[in-house]
Structures are given as C-alpha cells and as structure tokens.
Amino acid sequence: MQKQDIAFTCLDEPDLPKLIRPSEVVTAHFGYIRFHGRNKKEWWAGDNRTRYDYLYSDQELQEWLPRIQHMTRKAETLFVFFNNHWKGQAVLNAGRLKELLRECMTNH
Prior knowledge:
Number of strands: 3
Low-confidence stretches: none
Mean pLDDT: 95
Radius of gyration: 14 Å
Strand order of the largest sheet: 1-2-3
Shape: globular
C-alpha cells in the first residue's frame, strides 16, 4: 500500500469478532479515518439504517484524539469521515470532534 500511495482505512466500529480494531496506520501521503458507530446490537441483525444509527459520546471521540495526533504527524492531510448518518448524528459528531481537537491543540 505504501509503495502505491494507497491509504489504509482506519475504522471505528463496534468491538465485535471479525471487525477491524481501531488503529492509526498511515500508508499514503494522506490518512483516512471512518467512524461507523458502535451499535453492537444492530450491527449483524440490523440493516444499513439501524446499523449506523449511533451517536458517539465525548469519551468515545476523545479516545481518538491521540490517534489523530499521531496520524497528523505522519500524513500531509488527514481525512475523517462519519458514517453514523441515519438521524444526522454524523454532522453532530463531526462538529464535536472538531471542537475536541481544537481544545486539545489549545491545551498543548
């Protein structure tokens, strides 16, 4: 992936068997993170609406701050996407993550 400048997708999804664990891998000139939500109950039993029906807590978003900082040191650009979109949670969580990152950078 590095030789071809292809970005590995770092994921946040439920802690379930056979799913990818959170990481901070950068394999291209840019990094890529995708938040799917942690809706364990609906992940396998639900559909594409209920699976991604999830609102991240501040604590869950804060878990990613050190990973994001690490990735920004390794990548020219970091793309962060939220896929927990069924009821507009993606917009709320993206805005909140932006605030948390701003606070984190101000305090360091």
